[in-house]
Amino acid sequence: MTAEFVRPGESPRSTLPGRPSPFVLAAGEGERAHLFDQLFTVLLSGDETDCQFGVFTMEAPRGRAIPVHAHDDVHEIFYVLDGQVRVAIEDADGEVLDRVLTTGDFGYVPAGRKHTFRVESLRARTLGVSTGGFERFFAAAGERTEATAPPAVPVIPSAEQLGDAARRFRNEFHHDVRLID
Known about the structure:
Number of domains: 1
Radius of gyration: 15 Å
Keywords: Dioxygenase, Oxidoreductase
CATH topology: Jelly Rolls
CATH architecture: Sandwich
Order of helices and strands: EEEEEEEEEEHEHE
GO molecular function, one term: dioxygenase activity
CATH class: Mainly Beta
Strand order of the largest sheet: 8-5-10-3-2-1-11
CATH superfamily: Jelly Rolls
Mean pLDDT: 92
Organism: Actinomycetospora succinea
Oligomer: single chain
Structural class: mainly beta
Protein name: Quercetin 2,3-dioxygenase
Shape: globular
Low-confidence stretches: 1-12
InterPro entries: Cupin_1, Cupin_2, QDO-like, RmlC-like_jellyroll, RmlC_Cupin_sf
């Protein structure tokens, strides 16, 4: 399959069944979106799991930390497939767990906790699992794409687009909070 740009508002052909049904994906398949300097690929959505969970990958070059955010009803995990990713998570007491995760390392963000991450190596890939439905935030906040690599030029959503996606997916940004220097 050749990479092609999908304009905002258009839907690329979905490789996911959209209902609980057995399926397989070849390497690189899934629903892809660019957001900031990252490529997100949804491998399994809430549609296929009766909203139990979603599974996605993130690939990105070394860059800046994503905005600190929290989602009250979404649990999230980070499993580093390749590279180094700094994860910072605020616990219930306001203390920050700040760790560089390397290939094979795992991190968990309970619902409601402020968190952020930043790629520390030249490039990194993670596997993420979240409460079902949230995995579609990335396409809503960014741009759907058929590309199989992170964007050459970062995709920076407008404040309106990011705000709308945040409201739709119950994602609260904390632009005044820094968890990673």
